[in-house]
Amino acid sequence: MRVRIKICCIATPEEAMLAIRLGADALGLVAAMPSGPGPISDDAIAEITALVPPPVATFMLTAETTAEAIAAHIDRTGPSTVQIVSHIAPEESRALMTLRPDIRRVQVIHVEDRGALDLIPHYAPFVHAFLLDSGRPGASVPELGGTGRPHDWSISRDFVAASPRPVFLAGGLTAGNVRQAVEQVRPFGLDLCSGVRTDGKLDEVKLRAFMRAANGS
Fold first, then answer.
1. Is the pLDDT of residue 36 over 90?
2. Mean pLDDT over all residues of the chain?
3. How much of the chain exceeds pLDDT 90, in percent?
4. Residue (of 77, 129, 89) closest to 108 by Cα position
5. Contact 48, 29 (CB under 8 A)
């Protein structure tokens, strides 16, 4: 099965069109975060989501933690998918499913240890997919993504095997390690930001190299 590719930290309509032209299946649009690269305003996110043609998905990354606040954030930005970057209470995940059944919901799991697998049953009934990342939500300044660090892919592999939902893999992916990641973890999709950027800008050369490597060409 072809691995899907989501390019995150999209900052402008021009970056969005470049990523789409080079084969991205989805774009990640980062709203306000406590740390990490790539946040843009809600107005900028709404401008980009309005431009992106189907079937390309638009993932709005939100740090909100309640169903009502997440639903309001969706309404302001207009994405096809919401990526919830905090380990929210499962009851809030359930409530969001009721509030916004029309929006695809992706729950980020920060893989710090094998306890990540214990979160599968908490969220699987209420989301369409998981995304495994390398954040540290309990740090003094929470890291909720965009770290550029790989995590333990043996845990990710076991998560994919145990999950009833599709799983995206994120965290330190580059053209140099993506084939190993795909072969070891067998994710549904890949998600990356810093690995295809130079001086904070989407780098066409790096993105082309990543796409070739991810698809084994």
1. no
2. 93
3. 84
4. 129
5. yes
